Amino acid sequence: xxxxxxxxxxxxxxxxxxxxxxxxxxxxxxxxxxxxxxxxxxxxxxxxxxxxxxxxxxxxxxxxxxxxxxxxxxxxxxxxxxxxxxxxxxxxxxxxxxxxxxxxxxxxxxxxxxxxxxxxxxxxxxxxxxxxxxxxxxxxxxxxxxxxxxxxxxxxxxxxxxxxxxxxxxxxxxxxxxxxxxxxxxxxxxxxxxxxxxxxxxxxxxxxxxxxxxxxxxxxxxxxxxxxxxxxxxxxxxxxxxxxxxxxxxxxxxxxxxxxxxxxxxxxxxxxxxxxxxxxxxxxxxxxxxxxxx
Length: 294
What we know:
Oligomer: single chain
Low-confidence stretches: none
Largest sheet: 8 strands, mixed
């Protein structure tokens, strides 16, 4: 797959990778490595915002990294009705102030007018509990947003349906509360596992997807500044290797694998990932603005 090519296999669901980066954006502030310099000079798609995904058909956004406002503007997103959260880590939640920008009109606020179209916040009960614990001295941010009628929380124990699309929440088998999403419509299926999904759930619902979008993956054994990831390196206990990711695709029989949550620390540019794609026809590397149509 060439670096600006999108993935198309139908006309029902259109996904946009609004952010393909990791917990550190690309370019990393102050960094003068070749990858960051190139990203500053060329901009998107060499630059990457934090990890997020958007389903255009129903206005569904997955996660709110710190730079989500910039990511939504870059992708020219025009409507958000629901935000689904995968887990509570800061790089997936601390852009939640975008909720104010999506729903709050400050001049109406001073006239005592509250919004009448609150965003639906969808998360598993455990993830919702974690996110509600994110607070300042004034209390929970989500509590404030509910009092302003900016959001309406919905705990999802299994799945919900909207506009002919079914979104299922699959728990990652670990102590930490983490969700893998399965999105289905008209016999098409996409599995979205952006982060902290090791070990990968062994659930029948995850099998036979058209596309698996998987994060939590480092690419190559030589990373930024020549850092070597030996077989006993602790990184392997937290993240998948590229080989692990391909094995997961094969195990669950996904037709295509898309790697996202691409860290600046991997030390590779968009062109490096494009070169890898030519060697692995079943694999694509996400970039900001990539569309996947099923």
